[in-house]
Design a protein that fits this description.
It comes from Endozoicomonas euniceicola. With about 90 residues, the protein is mainly alpha-helical. Helices cover about 50% and strands about 5% of the residues.
Length: about 90
């Protein structure tokens, strides 16, 4: 059974949307934000976790994606995915 008549158009459209989401300046740049800003912007992230994110970033370098962010102690993949619409990496 075929779900999409033109899968290549769907692929292009999804790629364009993904690129637009990453470049959205209204999102929090997790690689430059202060702990205070992270605490205020992200849902279910408090001061302690926000400090851990900044400390991890200083020690290991920038985050490239949600999986990198989930490596921080106190940030699960589920929490990272929940906040994906509030975060950008560039």
């Amino acid at each position: 059974m075929k779900f999409f008549k033109y899968p290549s158009i769907l692929l292009v459209a999804t790629t364009v949307l993904a690129l637009n989401v990453q470049a959205d300046p209204s999102r929090l740049n997790i690689n430059t934000a202060s702990a205070e800003t992270i605490d205020k912007t992200l849902v279910f992230v408090g001061q302690q976790t926000a400090r851990k994110i900044v400390e991890y970033r200083k020690q290991y370098g920038t985050f490239n994606d949600l999986d990198d962010l989930a490596k921080v102690k106190g940030v699960s993949k589920r929490l990272a995915r929940y906040n994906r619409n509030r975060i950008r990496f560039q």
